[in-house]
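Following the same procedure, sequence and fold were stored together, as reproduced here.

>
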Amino acid sequence: MSCLVPLPAELQKIANIELGEVPSRIPADLLALKEWIKKQPHLRSRTDDQFLIQFLRGCKYSVEKAKEKIDNYYRLKTKHPDLFFIANIDDDTFRRFHNTNSHAVLPIPLRESGPRILFNRYSYSPYEFSIVDSLRNGSAVNEILHMSDPYACISGVMYVFDFADAKTPHLTALTPSIIIQMIKFFENTSPMRLKGLCIFNLSSYAHTITNMLLQYAPMKLKSRRTTAENNCVITMFMPCANENLEPWSSVPSKSCRDKSVILCQPIGSSTNYQTLIG
């Protein structure tokens, strides 16, 4: 019998319809992955049910695709440990960057059971922290979602980037090499399906930089991008404000449509990272 966190009824319905999840087949699919992992001498992978099922769900229950993603997951983490391998979450730099609230997760998914929304902003000093510090913190957030958030792995994720506080050093640090590594890692390893990308509050210079960098993105990502000029926030991410959310980031109230505002809050300091990051 598998040891999995039960899904809310609405989310289970989405998993059944969109991912082809058949609860009675899950134990056999998990066993197939575990047996395969045992036979891979180069692979030191987690084998707990909750970890493995995220790959099955992200690959719509194609066991072969899940195997490929698991292999790529560990291979790329080993190849680029400075970006994607979080060895010490008590590291002083890691903690200080986390406290800048540059990467946050909205506590309620889109339309209650839709994609999880990740809000990113340039609230850190580019003179105190590097782009590597930012990516490592972002990788930690993704791993937490991977291990603990079924909405992200079933309904997918949406990334929202607010460039209001972006300075020139922030932008020049986004080199093609860094962008290619980020895209390659997410596309080849993450069990979370990308459902949307929203970029707003772009200066003319930031607009030029992001357009240049997005040429390295796969066509699927380009087709899911939305760019909002100046103080315009795209309403597709949250049609109306939810009164029970604590505002994490102040987003301009003037939007593409009425009553569109994005509110979020940082991951609480009580989060047990050590149990979530393998």
